Amino acid sequence: KQDDDQLIIDAGQKQFGATTCSSCGMVYSADNPEDNFQHTQFHQRFLDSIKFVGWKKERVVAEFWDGKILLVMPDDPKYAIKKAEDVRRVADNELGFQQVALSRPTQAKTYLFINTERLVVGCLVAEPIRQAYRVLEQPDRHKDMTKDDFMERHRAWCCSTVPEQALCGISRIWVFSLARRQGIATRMLDTVRSTFMYGSPLTKEEIAFSDPTPDGKLFATKYCNT
Ligand code: ACO
Ligand code: ZN
What's the gap in Å between 15 CA and the centre of ligand 1? Predict the structure, then answer.
């Protein structure tokens, strides 16, 4: 009986002190030493994953005042592939994807946005596809759900049953939480459109987003209508 009471008290305190790290996104209890330790470790691994030290050979596909976009191809040197994988893992972790494997690894192109502080703040994986199904407008019954409910419900978007021609599938797009709403995703997509197929820029209709999250859908809707 006493143990039960104790458990409840502990849970209450944990709930009360819950903190979300704005960089790595981990939820932990700042006043719990064990939790703090776990967070420090996770946080460090996260930072290591997005840290960019510079490469001997960089395929720079776009440059901006606040950063640059590098393209990593499947046959690139090990160090480039490894960094692309590390960042993809961070993104997958946030997206709740289980497996890190790509559907067509030999054809996937990874775009990394490197900021002036030498951090990889954006990652986009693009793959060639033939057709896609358009995501239809959300029915109202989802209106009251919170974002987390949404993620729980397998991202049940309604898709059209009519396939449409598309050439480039965006299987993942992720921007570092502290760097969002600065047009990084927009610039990465513009760069994909101009570089994905050599010599032939893609229209917005020729790219398709696979399995978008709520954030992804808001972004994609805005991007495709502008
Ligand atoms: N809510 C509402 N509108 C948004 C949001 C949002 N969360 N994100 C983007 N938009 C719209 C806005 O209109 C924005 O313009 P504004 O800032 O001038 O209003 C416009 O899209 C352009 O946004 P960007 O700044 O280019 O987008 P950002 O760099 O912030 O990246 C992204 C957007 C990639 C969705 C980011 O929020 C993210 O990484 N989220 C977590 C991971 C995720 O959900 N990724 C999408 C998965 S779907 C897939 O991978 C196929
Ligand atoms: Zn953290």
Answer: 29
